[in-house]
Amino acid sequence: MNILLTGATGYIAQRLLPVLLEQGHQVTCVVRVSARFNLGKFGHQQAVTIIEADLMDRDSLNSFPKEIDAAYYLVHSMSGGGKFGEREAQSARNFTEAIGQTTARQVIYLSGIVNSDELSEHLSSRKKVEDTLGEGKVPLTTLRAGIIVGSGSASFEIIRDLVEKLPVMIAPKWLNTRCQPVAIRNVIQFLSSVLLKEFSYGHYYDIYGPDIMTYKEMLMRFARARGLKRHIYSVPVMTPKLSSYWLYFVTSTSYTLARNLVDSMRVDVVAEPNDLADRLNIKLIPYEEAIALAFDKIEQNMVLSSWYDAVGGEHSREMVKKQMAVPENGVFTDKKTLKTKDPEQAVGRIFAIGGKAGWYYADWLWGFRGFIDKLFGGVGLSRGRRNMNVVSAGDTLDFWRVIYANREEKRLLLYAEMKLPGEAWLEFKIEGDCIRQTATFRPLGIAGRLYWYAVLPFHYFIFNGMIRKIAG
User: Fold this and answer.
1) Distance, CA of 369 to CA of 362 (rounded, Å)
2) Which of 265, 276, 354, 434 has most Cβ atoms within 10 angstroms of its Cβ?
3) Domain of 111, in residue numbers
């Protein structure tokens, strides 16, 4: 079958793609910028076609192949700021129009469980997208999921942060809200198994695990599964805004995502029972087993995708391309050059930088910069890195985003996602036995220039120490 996969750089699509390839399908992946899609980590590369398109740009969707059997709609803008609902609705309209001009027989959409009378802004947006897709010519199958439990998922990583960091939690009253989590393995099974099943055309199904619990029970059962003793006390006086700040400072989530999550957590997310799992011969995975499966992947360093690495809907194709072009004019630069006796070992250090490995020199200063970033609403250092050994374009490295990574060329380019009065890049490149390390900063107004001169003394020590450690 010929399958169109949107949201190909996202958490779910990165898990679904290898399954579709193993099933023998030809898959066309839709990405904003092809250079940021790492095809190398998937097998069956000859069965994958990559096209550049932005669902917010209707004309760019003319690149959709006309001869396809089905399409997956796996995009969302929840982590983006501003009016994400409007962006989602416009993306859905553009997609519906474009897919209607193909031979597709089915569109499969992953939505959220929307059974409550009162919906959050996020869940209302998901429902509106579902309605828009359903108005198209191509029959729609909607799978509605609640909390997804799996290594790298936003919900899992937030729960993990809370449980592992806080022996005692003073938490908001929404911890008494009920939910019905589902294992990421089950989600992928549903998505792949419902493909071209005619009985599912024009229908929606809640997909869920066997356990219904409150968020508090979810945290406590997670703690027991990890052998940790935790105490949780809920208070009724914590406002949604305070709750969002609480999640933001304690966990690795962004404030925007924390705000949207808190808004959604005030609503029960419990599924309507159905027989879809039986019809597709899918065994539902209990919550504790889903946790064990997730940590098995983490401990083996085999996390295939992470929500951190997905580029939010606010990042247009033009913006991503602009980030890849390091400016030369109107910028401040800090250039370091040093010879190394072992270039290959130096390459290894460059591509292992960040996360648990740290930044090789004055990590406490990097930590302080991350703390300051959090105070100003940035991402801080808590995102770490998805894989300790491999880094690819699009990955996150603490408060940096990987723009370009090529081990054969011995080049790594990072773009800063911390809060700055300007834009910043950090590039490592080895030519022969010479390491070239370049920090580039494009200031925004007077504040940007003052910032550069304020941090210049720290750059002298940090960047000199870092390149010396890389050189060995």
Assistant:
1) 11
2) 354
3) 2-300
